[in-house]
Amino acid sequence: MLNSFKSMVSRLYQAWREYLWDSLSKRDQKTFQSFIDEEASKVTLTASLKLLSEFLATKSGQNVIVLIDEYEAPNNRACEFDFVKQVCLSIPFPITFEVDDIDPG
């Protein structure tokens, strides 16, 4: 499982390398490359998404929002089967859209 995660992180970092590389310090480049080469330590690997978000925010000068497909699936199903209001009422964090504006079909 760890190798699968390393591989996924490696592909993610490869996708952003061209955009970010020149904006990174030498130290950050070394860390960045360790993700691509799948050589990052387990501890560093656990921070991979946070680090990538920070690198992107620094480069772009804007906040970064991370969307993870698997976490969106329940919301998509709620829209598909027209029970999005019930789902939104049960989520313990703020929703960033108006549920009345959603057209499930």
Structural key phrases:
single chain; 105 residues; mainly alpha; 2 domains; 64% helix; disordered C terminus
Topology:
Elements: H1 2-20, H2 26-36, H3 42-46, H4 48-60, H5 69-80, H6 84-90
Helix pairs in contact: 1-2, 5-6
Cα separation of the termini: 37 Å
Portion of residues in beta strands equals under 5%
Q: What percent of residues adopt helix (DSSP H or I)?
A: 55-70%
Principal-axis shape: globular
The description of the largest β-sheet is: none
Mean pLDDT: 79
Radius of gyration: 18 Å
**SSE succession:** HHHHHH
Helix count, per DSSP?
6
Total tally of structural domains: 2
This entry's quaternary arrangement is single chain
Tally of DSSP β-strands: 0
What does this protein look like?
This protein is mainly alpha-helical and 105 residues long. It folds into two domains: 2-60, no CATH class; 69-101, no CATH class. It has six helices and no strands.
Question: Can you summarize this structure?
Answer:
The chain is an all-alpha fold and 105 residues long. The protein folds into 2 domains: 2-60, no CATH class; 69-101, no CATH class. Helices cover 64% and strands 0% of the residues.
